[in-house]
Design goal:
The structure holds 2 protein chains of 2 kinds. Chain A is 49% helix and 14% strand. By secondary structure, chain A is of the alpha/beta class. Chain A folds into 2 domains: 192 residues, Periplasmic binding protein-like II (D-Maltodextrin-Binding Protein, domain 2, 3-Layer(aba) Sandwich); 195 residues, 3-Layer(aba) Sandwich (D-Maltodextrin-Binding Protein, domain 2), CATH 3.40.190. Chain A has a 5-stranded mixed β-sheet. Chain B has 2 domains: 44 residues, no CATH class; 237 residues, MetI-like fold. Chain B contains 13 helices and no strands. Classes of the chains: A alpha/beta, B mainly alpha.
Chain lengths: 423, 312
């Protein structure tokens, strides 16, 4: 018995010594959102990273529940000084951390990289995390709006032309579906994704920005903005779009009860899994993107919060590992998102996309990649709610007949919440 | 009832002589010393935070900021201009104004009906009390399923009867009423139990005395004995239900998020949204102060009325 105890103590001592040895190296703490989407992805990345960098240990904190939770947690931890070294945040949530001086600029690290462009970091990708002229993060996984089509419904409706490329064509399909007497909803358009993402999609598709270049005046009250709101109202009305909550809409589409579904590509994995065996699912490009127009990126980016130079350097190493090469490839392989990294998409994932054409739709749209714009100032997040409420007044049919008036109110309410010029 | 304690306290303090006064001073010192830890904790955990919130409501602080500035009453001025706030206050008052009377009278009715049963009382008591025992969060999800426009039980029932089914929680006209129904459903069981306790404590002989005096209809039994003797319970129930209705949050959070278009926005949910979704901590602090004022007002009215108008 005594002997057994001795051996146990010896073993424990050895293990502790081992742990100590590892702890003598740098440990970085990393936190990311949405464990149900990204758990496998990060586990694979961390395993590979630790193998390649035995002197750095990565500790994954319990994941954030959502983007909202992610920014809330970081803001609280900034007060109590318990920040992780690397945090992954929704693309439209980076700005608030930059404005409050929590996220560190990365230019000093980028300057030291020799093959940064060759590693696949292109300008459009870096732009997503550039604030005040400085890069503050590296986008990790991005999504773009795409069209999902239930090919069985379209076939029964007699639609044998290519997938729609304009909203007018979408309405045509809607009418065909209705005329065919199927008991399905014709389509659902994801206006309720975070309240403003699709609003930005319509505007970006006409190359229209949310605010003017000085960021003090609302810009979407112009003609392109009017076109966007009218288009939305027209889709709601003529397609007889149900006023569903998004989870319900997605469940209905997955179950084969909706013809077309305009949504983020990030849901592809889940919808594909849920609809397997029920019908043929196809994805197509987001309709009606004009020449020179773009689409807003969804998804998240990694930010370095560590201030200590050594930890910050290790954090940068990890962030770079996760956003290039095999690290980035894991994003496409394990989720519905795609890595924004050019090299990963064009080289490592070439065969993968050939086998998964539905996932390739969004990759083809990558040249259209634009900012998921975050409104400035203390009321930035409240503005997204104003936009959501306005869109809802159309989706619920309450004000579907007066898109111009809705837009006018929305412009006024947004303007009131913007920081006064000069501040 | 808490009031009976204060009654005994009050009657235990007759006019005192000087001798007694000195003694009571010593007694006071001991009392304060003994209650010091509790007072300290109360200050730290209750009064302190309220003061911090009050101070914060005069600043422009937003979560994560390193500093703040004093802005005086700016947050309160903003409230007056804030359509969402006006709507939230209106909705909250409407919610309280409907849920409180409905759940109090239905609770009383249920309690009397169950009490009048000769057997099966325990069963019905349990049935009506179930919603109180269950977590409201979980129950809200059950309601979400029942109200689903496509496969929900309620919609299917209506369709079966040839009536139009609605997307109850997504429509401006029905979202708040649905939350009220859930609120009443939840409060009813709790109120019923309190009324039952009140009913059992009414002495039987009062009813017998009434019968001797010739009042034998059930209405006169209710009106001359039951109702007056239940008045302390009724007041307590009204106050508790009012405070709980002011605090309505879980079903709003789970089912409507205050939508559509703020149609079901209530005070506490707006407070949550401003503070934790928009990170406008100072404004949220201001809303908290408004909320506290309402709660204090109810509590004050309760203690005033309790002293004067309740028959024992």
């Amino acid at each position: 018995m005594r002997r057994l105890l001795k051996t146990a103590v010896a073993a424990a001592t050895l293990m502790l010594a081992g742990a100590n040895f590892a702890a003598a190296e740098t440990t970085i703490e990393v936190q990311y959102p949405y464990s149900h989407l990204f758990k496998t992805t990060y586990e694979k990345i961390v395993a590979d990273f630790e193998k390649a960098n035995p002197d750095i240990k990565v500790k994954l904190r319990a994941p954030y529940e959502s983007y909202e939770d992610a920014s809330q947690t970081v803001l609280k931890e900034a007060i109590t000084n318990r920040l992780p070294d690397v945090t992954f945040q929704g693309l439209n949530r980076q700005r608030i951390l930059v404005e409050k001086g929590i996220a560190q600029p990365l230019d000093q690290f980028i300057a030291k990289e020799t093959d940064f462009e060759k590693d696949g970091y292109h300008q459009a990708m870096l732009d997503l995390s550039t604030f005040n002229g400085k890069v503050h993060g590296l986008p990790f996984s991005v999504s773009l709006p795409v069209g999902y089509y239930n090919m069985d419904v379209l076939k029964k409706a007699g639609w044998d032309k290519p997938l729609p490329t304009s909203w007018d064509e979408v309405i045509e399909v809607c009418k065909a579906i209705k005329a065919s007497g199927q008991t399905v909803d014709t389509m659902f358009w994801g206006w309720n994704i975070t309240g403003n993402w699709f609003w930005q999609s319509l505007n970006w598709s006409r190359d229209n920005t949310m605010l003017d270049p000085t960021e003090t005046k609302v810009n979407f009250g112009n003609d392109a903005g009017k076109w966007s709101m009218r288009t939305f109202a027209k889709l709601v009305k003529e397609c007889d779009m149900p006023n569903n909550e998004w989870k319900e809409a997605m469940a209905n589409f997955s179950a084969g009860k909706v013809g077309m579904f305009f949504w983020s590509t990030s849901a592809l994995q889940k919808i594909a899994d849920d609809s397997t065996g029920l019908y043929t699912l196809k994805t197509g490009p987001f309709p009606d993107v004009a020449e020179g127009g773009g689409l807003p990126a969804g998804g998240n980016a990694g930010l370095v919060l560590a201030k200590d130079p050594e930890t910050a350097a290790a954090s940068w190493k990890f962030l770079k590992f996760a956003t290039s090469g095999q690290g980035a490839a894991y994003v496409a392989q394990t989720t519905g998102y795609m890595p924004p990294n050019k090299a990963a998409n064009e080289v490592i994932l070439k065969d993968f996309y050939a086998q998964n054409p539905n996932k390739f739709t969004a990759v083809k749209q990558l040249p259209l990649l634009r900012d998921w714009y975050a409104f400035p100032g203390e009321n930035g997040l409240k503005i997204t709610k104003v936009i959501e409420d306005s869109m809802q007044s159309i989706a619920s049919r309450e004000r579907v007949e007066e898109p111009d008036a809705v837009l006018k109110d929305m412009v006024e309410d947004t303007q009131k919440l913007l920081p006064k010029s000069g501040s | 009832m808490p009031s009976s304690d204060t009654m005994t306290f009050g009657s235990a303090m007759p006019a005192v002589s000087v001798h007694r006064k000195r003694r009571s001073l010593a007694a006071h010192a001991t009392a304060y010393a003994l209650s010091a830890p509790a007072l300290f904790l109360m200050g730290l955990l209750l009064i302190g935070p309220v003061l911090v919130v009050l101070m914060m409501s005069f600043t422009d602080y937003s979560l994560g900021n390193a500093s703040f500035e004093w802005v005086g009453l700016a947050n309160y001025a903003e409230m007056l201009e804030d359509d969402v706030f006006v709507k939230a206050i209106g909705n909250t008052l409407l919610y309280v104004g409907i849920v409180v009377p409905a759940s109090v009278f239905l609770g009383l009715g249920t309690a009397m009906l169950i009490e009048s049963l000769t057997f099966g009382r325990a069963f019905w008591r349990a049935v009506y009390f179930l919603p109180v025992m269950a977590t409201l969060m979980a129950m809200a999800i059950v309601w979400e399923f029942m109200l689903n426009a496509r496969f929900g039980m309620i919609s299917q029932l209506l369709t079966l009867l040839g009536l139009p089914a609605k997307n109850w929680l997504q429509e401006t006209s029905t979202a708040l009423p649905m939350l009220m129904v859930i609120g009443i459903w939840q409060a009813l069981g709790f109120n019923m139990v309190l009324f039952m306790a009140g009913l059992t404590s009414i002495p039987r002989d009062l009813y017998e005395a009434l019968e001797l005096d010739g009042g034998s209809s059930s209405w006169s039994r209710f009106w001359t004995v039951t109702w007056p003797l239940l008045s302390p319970v009724t007041l307590f129930v009204v106050v508790i239900t009012a405070i709980r209705s002011f605090q309505v949050f879980d079903p709003v959070h789970v089912l409507t998020k205050g939508g559509p278009n703020n149609a079901s926005m209530v005070l506490i949910y707006q407070l949550y949204q401003e503070g934790f979704d928009f990170f406008r901590s100072a404004y949220a602090a201001g809303l908290t102060v408004v909320f506290l004022v309402f709660i204090f007002a109810i509590t004050w009215v309760k203690s005033r009325v309790m002293e004067k108008n309740v028959h024992y």
